[in-house]
Protein: Ubiquitin carboxyl-terminal hydrolase
Organism: Salarias fasciatus
Amino acid sequence: MATDLGELLVPYMPTIRVPRTGDRVFKSECAFSFDSPESEGGLYVCMNTFLGFGREHVERHYRKTGQSVYMHLKRHVKEKATGAAGGAIPRRRNGKVFLDLELNRDFNGEDYEYEDEAKLVIFPDHFEIPLPNIEELPALVTIACDAVLNAPSAYKKQEPESWEEEIQVSRHARSLRQLDNGVRIPPSGWKCQKCEMRENLWLNLTDGAVLCGKWFFDGSGGNGHALEHYRETNHPLAVKLDTITPDGADVYSFEEEEAVLDPHISEHLSHFGIDMLQMQKRTENGHHIDNNSRPRVSEWEVIQESGMKLKAVFGSGYTGIKNLGNSCYLGTVLQVLFSIPDFQRMYVGNLQRIFDYSPLDPTQDFATQMAKLGHGLLSGLYSKPPMKSELIEQVMKEEYKHQQKGISPRMLKSLVSRGHPEFSSNRQQDAHEFLLHFINLVERNSAGSENPSDVFRFLVEERVQCCQSRRVRYTQRVDYCIQLPAPFEAATNREELLTYEAKRKEAEENMRAPPEPVRAKIPFTACLQAFTEPENVPDFWSSALQAKSAGVKTSRFASFPEYLILQIKKFTFGIDWVPKKLDVTIDVPEFLDLNRLRATGLQAGEEELPDLMPPIVLPEDTRGEMSPEIDEAAVMQLAEMGFPLEACRKAVYYTGNMGPEMAFNWIIAHMEEPDFAEPLTLPSMIPDLGPSTSDSPMGATPLGNSPPEESIAILTSMGFPRTHSIQALKATNNNLERALDWIFTHPEEEESDVLSDMADTEPNDNAFSNANSHSDSTLSPDRDMAGPRIKDGPGRYELFAFISHMGASTMSGHYVCHIKKEGRWVIYNDHKVCLSERPPKDLGYIYFYHRLSSS
């Protein structure tokens, strides 16, 4: 038999590989569907590419690639028989576990037992070889099979190894001396004793001092007063206040310079009047909440419709999306997008064509993964109601097990977040930022084909007026979302708010519990009014006066989109630059008429501003050496992350002092270069400008001249193509900052995904989102072929979906969405999908409207 198997496998030996370092083994999910080893047909893993395929898709891969040998993985799960010992270790055949247990949270090891089965399958005859079969298989095949079975999951390999370090017990924990100074810590209202900061607060376990931590690159942190206190007192241990739960807390040792464990943390906290059993960091669903959670309790309950007996719904369009841990921002956005017919038609309607023409690695193809997720949400295959017999059995056992499991977006999330410093992390994110990022991806991956994001695109007309000359300039650009401010001064319950604020401050000063919170009630009409009001233009240069002047800008709709995205600007920044959430309720209407905001263009009697560029102001000594201007604060922020100081200086300089995030991206892109840590050396900052240009208007450099080589070098060092950099500089009269904006708004086809990601996350203060915007003063409706595709129509809309956020900032909390389907509002809360009883339309964050017909 051994000879027979050896001879059988000889023709396929060149195609069988042993996984190497860096190879990802997809043994827990199909590349085209959500089939897994627990599915009825199991999962087939290609022994050459290590991609996983369900039974319906493995034949396609065989026909496309000619790969014949696959490992078939099957997990048989069954509920333990009555009388089985609770808590027994699940039974496993061969000791092999194909699924990572963290990916399969539907099964409790105490209630279920499972058997794993593996075999080699040779196509096209489906010849099966059971595993293990060490004696009969060639050595290479045995080694390859063993490596696949023992390989971690494809996504677990991506997790940083640094997170796997085991935290040790502090040597100070047992002998910690605590001062009997009468300090008692209240359950809320904490603030740093030195700077009044209310985030990232640490309690010193020796003297009870409450102080702020250090600043971190992600925007969190404080002013480092806790560390300063240690240097002054040598009190070694501190606990982070908002992490205290009945299960423990985050403890840091200043002396040991690392996070540590404190086995006596309960006793140490009780010394300051803190009962660990009363502290809570997370809800039962695992979503992060703040220590100052009292003002948000009602928000969590109202938005999730807690306390109501919501009826679960099943079938097509009612499939939930599993939360991978702070991924609810992604799940809610995808649920809304796939409720729009254009997205359904593009990805699910073309499913077979997309799958048939997918690349050799479908896990890295945007269209394939969108089709996969869309089919999972809309097919109903993963949202089936329980059988009547299962319900009867549950009633007999007097228990109810939630039947909705949802689908995992892990493969799509890995793809769409690749290269993005925030979305690739496991931290909570802003759903609005992700939505714009995702629309950008759809745009880039729809070149030459139907683009479903066309339904969101519209033109914005911006009218800028010089206050002195009264002349105007009209420009148009593309946008995808309008952002409405939430003006607190327009609240209808201002007296109540003022009274609450006075009581809250009094309670803080006297270290008492805060009063019952009051939420501001702002009319939607006030938000719309604030949006339409003119805004001042900073550093406005009037071409009519040829000097700086006061300017005002108003924005109107040059076209209306088929689907309107409306974001309420609920988040602002505190003094510590941590996003804060405005606690407001807004009476957002179900029907919306924006026709009065239609742009009118140049009006009779208006005079346009001359089409002139501001002059370039040169320093007196344009030939001598100049020390480059570098934002030293950004340099130090990067250096604190462990990067070489000179590399940080180059990163900040070459990204034009545009902030630590842009500089961080530059570092990641250039850290492999041999001169990465070499000092910054530059020739003269201002090159020889050649003959005098005094005959040019206002002394500006003529656009026909070649841009300064130094400016070109700065842009090319950031990764932009040389030809594109020259084109940008010429178009902006060699203004570096405007050239960078021009590049982002005029992308080349060959430009990298990372650069596009940088572009779509640039912050802006405009009332419109400015995602992927095109600031082109020559854009006009008669340029339909060359310009953006828009679907203009009436400005009358009906609300069909909204995404809500619970929590104090975008860095924490939870998202759910409500979608109107078949005349009923449905709540999508991760994997749970139920009919909504009271959709909280007044507490939404992002609203989605569809255009009403003109009839």
